[in-house]
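User: what does the whole thing look like in 3D?
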Amino acid sequence: MLLRRDFLQHAATGLSGIALASLLAADETRPIRPAIDPSRPLAPRVPHFPPKAKRVLVLFCSGALSHVDTFDYKPELVKRHDTPMPGATELVTFQGEQGNLIKPLWDFKRRGECGKPISDLLPQLAELADEMCFIHSMTAKSNTHGPAENQMSTGFTLDGFPGMGAWVSYALGADTDNLPAFVAISDPRGVPQVGPRHWSSAFLPAVFQGTAFTADKPIPNLARPGSIDEGSDQDTRSFLEVLNRRHLEAHPGDTDLAARISSYELAARMQLGAVEASDLRRESEATRKSYGVDDPNKIKAGFARNCLLARRLLERGVRFVQLFNGAYAMGEGVGNWDGHKTIKTQYDVHAPILDRPAAALLRDLRDRGMLEDTLVVFTTEFGRMPTFQKGASGRDHNPKGFTVWLAGAGVKHGYSHGATDEFGHQAVEKVATIYDLHASMLHLLGLDHERLSYYHNGIERRLTDVHGHVIQEILS
Amino acid sequence: MRRALALAVLSTLSTGLPAQDPPATVDFSRDVRPIFARSCVSCHGPEKRKSNYRLDLRAAALGEGSIGRPILAGHGADSPLVRYVAGSDPDIKMPPKGSRLSDVEVNLLRAWIDQGAVWPEEDAGRDRPAEAHWSYRPILRPEPPAIPGASGAIDRFLLAKLQKEGLGFSPEAGRRTLIRRLYFDVTGLPPAPEDIAAFETDPSPDAYGHLVERVLNCPRFGERWARHWLDVVRFAESHGFEMNQPRPNAWPYRDYVIHAFNEDIPYDQFVREQLAGDLLGADAATGFLVGGPMDQVKSPDPVLTAQQRADELNDMVATTGTAFLGLTLGCARCHDHKFDPVPQEDYTSLVAVFAGVEHGERPIPPPNAIERLEHAAKLRAEAMPLRDILSGDEPSARLGRTLLIDASGPGRSSYRSGSQRGCAADPGDERRFPTLGRGPVPNAVWVPDVDGRFRVWVSWGGASGEAPCLLGDQELARIHLDSFADGQPMSTGAPLWSGFRDLGVLDLTKNSRLSLRSGDTLLLIEDPAPAVPILRAPVTRGANTERFSPIDAKRVRFTIFETTQLEPCIDELEVFAEDLNVARGAIARASGTLPGFDIHKLEHINDGLYGNARSWISNERGRGWVELEFPRVEHIDHIVWSRDRDDVPRYDDRLPTKYIIEVSLDGASWTPIATSEDRVPRGRIPDGVFRTLRPLTEKESAGHAETEQRLKAIDAEVMRLTSFPSVYAGKFIRPPTIRLLHRGDVTQPREVVGPGLPTRIGPSRTIARGSSDPQRRMALAEWIVDPKNPLTARVIVNRLWHYHFGEGLVATPSDIGANGARPSHPELLDWLASELVAKNWSLKAVHRLILNSAAWRQSSASRPEGTKVDAGSRLLWRYPPRRLEAESLRDAILSVSGALDLRMGGPGFDLFEPNTNYVRVYAPRTIFGPAEFRRMIYQMKPRMELDPVFGAFDCPDGGQVAPRRNVSTTPLQAMSLLNSPFMLQQASLFAARLERETPDLDSQVERAFRLAFGRDPAAGELEDSTALVRTRGLPALCRALFNANEFVTVH
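Assistant: Here's the predicted 3D structure for the full assembly of 1527 residues, as structure tokens:
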């Protein structure tokens, strides 16, 4: 009670300098504010309850990867190949009218001990079926890349909401003091369709935004500029520190000033930490080879390096890594999974870039025991139609049913949850939403998605808006 | 039975987490009322009062219903209400239908009752709950408390509260600190060392007051405060979402806001202009309406299209609500607002207010539009004859007066019969008119009886020798009477007509009198007139063409003043836009129609069928009008009309001979495009002999190239004058019907909702049925700025306070509704709000009050007794120090380095590489030049793409509104300021400036400190600095100063 009285006194005076966290008993509904030390805003913080996962890797396939050609096997689609989809004569999807049902363009085979049918499009990933926990009944709110990518990464179709990595770093900080808490690694071909919205801090403090870099493009402005020699840099920083210390002495009690001094120290540590983490030469030849970092296909090699970088970052305590496969800069389906017109040709180019490096990453995490406390989420913004578009050899957008899979900490292995209809068009069984996915991810991190919130403009904002249920069936 | 509540206290100042409402104890408005509202009030509330019990009003809820007293304060577990909702009562379970309360909620209610069922007075509720919350109550004008030694109202309100805590203001800040604070706060730039010195030594007792006036009147003020407003209204210069293409013409809205603040446009007008500036001559202001994101990805999928439109309209409604009213209207999109009295119907009626607004650009008339259009009209008139000369087409109609005046006087003779040149029946050819003269008069005199400036041509015949042509007594020309007008000699004998000889441009009055021996017809064409006399053929029954410079028209009106005889008849009126007859399908109206004839009906006028049997006849003799209204504005260039297109001779009656044709865009103002004036009068020459005149000799036609050139120049100039710049300020359409969307779902439309205003907040006003789009928006604006609206003034004065002190009197500037923060000083807020209205909504008046207050002028130094009670300085026992925002930081760096370009207005500079990808790729520039050295408010600001250096400083992204900025401290900021190419360049420029301005090292260091920090270096600093410069150079010192805490902090 004493504590509460203190609290009320502070509240009554409307303190802005001291915000209050309430680590309340589990049956409360109020927000839980993370305890953030201003001079170490990225220091590790305790979750709401004991977590299964300590860190997250999201592998995001930009452009909408076809579920019916990869993970969601529909015998009826094969049987009814090249016939009209019942009830679809009036159906207008994103780019227009539908042609006939088209069977998967790659054959399905049973994989692993679980016997999960997966197509030949991604053969190496397929071999890891026993690690995967499929959600076949995923649904998105929008059939347009922009809003749908927004939703998958921020929970909202609109622009301007924090990415899930920002939410997680806000809640949990990082297990490292020389690397960012949240790293976004773009595809070698460029950024995904909504670019930095995936890793934006939006209305959360900027310290929680994702730091974007790749194996080939280091953190901007990280390194000492070439025009300044090391001695000069050192002297300048020392002079700056003296200047700042004097200023701090003249302004005792202003924590902002101390925090800013700390941020320069953290930046200096990051210079070393990020360089070390990004140095892939430290990996064994066997590891490098398994990812394919020297593959003659330059894009594939670039993506492989990104995969390896992701593992090294996770290993070093980065809380949340968002790894992208596919970029939009080259146009529809050219550098991503948006297979409207000639899906076979397009996917035959993209699949090898994704398959081996991603499979190597998942295997590597498993072999190093990291899957014990790392959650892997393989996702895309929505699925594709079981039909071809009228007059084309590709599939249109389909947010009504698609597949994501999870692996690692806290989820079942070799398990499939929910289902689409007989053709793979609409989720019909245990229908799941992106809110549910996010709620489950936060749950695995020990966070109650209803209590991880931030007041913005009249409302306690959450990653899950006012929706979402933890998908209990997928938890191990 | 209460569960243990654990609390942890932490500081979040530096991460800038806003003050959060107290969550630790059960708070009625936050925790309890929402449960009642959701689960109870539908039966126990204003509509139904089951068991004579209500849970929306305090008195009723804490009293008795028909089955006793459900809430027993202090005894949660024993209270019937808790038993009912927990399901532990054998007989009564509440709510009886729908989902039960969760354990959490039941426990909350029990805890709340245990704690005494505290139901604050301000939430006591009335029948109109809108009136209960503080911000929905009328703004009164509280009397400032009497405080000895304090004069200003602001200080008295603040001190009253401070003194309760045993505190007072800190002493006034030193002048150096004060001027630096004032400059950054008001202008966003540091003061120059000279400004600081002048202020420090200014002996005037009101030196500070003068300084305040100076900065408030400096144009930098508008630039600084416009940035704040642009945050509030989510302004950005790209569309957002995946394509995120730029909006190159969105910048005029930014310029408008800067201008509005600098000119201190009254805030009520500022609101009106942003909502309905198209009615107020402030077109760019409506950039507000469409400042938000717009998904450019279009699809044939109707659901997606509807969703995109619903999102756009929601953005307009929600932003209007948060920006002007501090009301989260957007929360009522899917259901009634959970906290504030905004039913979903009210939300929908506001959607209907904006339903006529679409994203896009519209041409906006500049301030000198009228002069420009008049000038263009003159040029057009000038161009027409030139064009006719070149084209050889039938001449365009010319506006202005044309007169053919026959000589008066006795003794008229006739021309020789025959068709040779000059004979009575000479049909003329391409270079000369047919004989228009009636025959010469020996002593010809003309009295035109007109006022104005005319070009005049004279003709003669049947005489020999020379004679003067006189205007009064003045000789205009000597005429060789035995020659034609072009100088060719006439054959002798019976008289021949000379043709027209130019007399030049004359200023004529009513009494002007011209004379010439043996003169004939005089031709006058009002100036600007062509250099050669151009006339058009007489009207015929068959077909008459009216050519004119292409013009936009929604309507065409043909008005007849005279006919050959009887009521006028027109069988077909065709209006062409690029050879398409747009009259077909137009709505026809007329002054009247001759009744009783099936063959003469109005609808025949544009039915595409010719002949007397498909014609319109007016119901008045000799006059009448007919009008065509097109479905849309058409760019028309000629008209063809006829009495009887079949050209049957007996239908020579009813032929209009005097008429005017006009066009209009709005049906109110009409522009003439053709009249009968410049046509040769009927009967003067035989039908069909008039030919298009090409009155150029071969010699003259050598000048064709020059004419062409001239015409081209005129056309370009006309184009420039008449094409107004397009601005991304919205396009306006006739508002479509709006339906309430069940659960906000576009696939579940329900009843139609007309435009309206919030029904449960503010003044009672309505929007008239059938209001047009701009009327709707104007009605909303008038409701917002109605002095009886309790929100508007409070919200804006709170924003000003927020930016002056770093924290508003209400900590949630765009939400002062029930879920927002409570005001720290409610009376002060209301006093300021009433003062704003009393000062005719002058924002500068409020700035002045705040800046001159002792509260704002006090020192920022921390004091232990202050931090003990109020660490966040919310009570203002000191001025709260702040870090510079991104824009001020960049501007300050440029200012100190000497690179800052203060050019105002116009399109912004781009910090990203050019790119034309379908999905715009934003690659940051790494090389910067003077173009990028303008103030950052002029950055062409893309949505969701932050500048790589300064974006790290909590710069809003334009995705959502940003009523307050976080102030976070991150390692990326440190890296950006230390290592980015921009910063290295600025450090070099700073160093170069120092070297340029002062000779020796010591003075360079001094100058550097004065520029960067506004002070001299201390002794130790001077030594350290010179040591650094000696070993590492001046740029190293400059790089360090830009990174210093002192540089980025305002004390």
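In plain terms: Residues 1-27 of chain A have pLDDT under 50 and may be disordered. Chain A touches chain B through 117 residues (CB under 8 Å).
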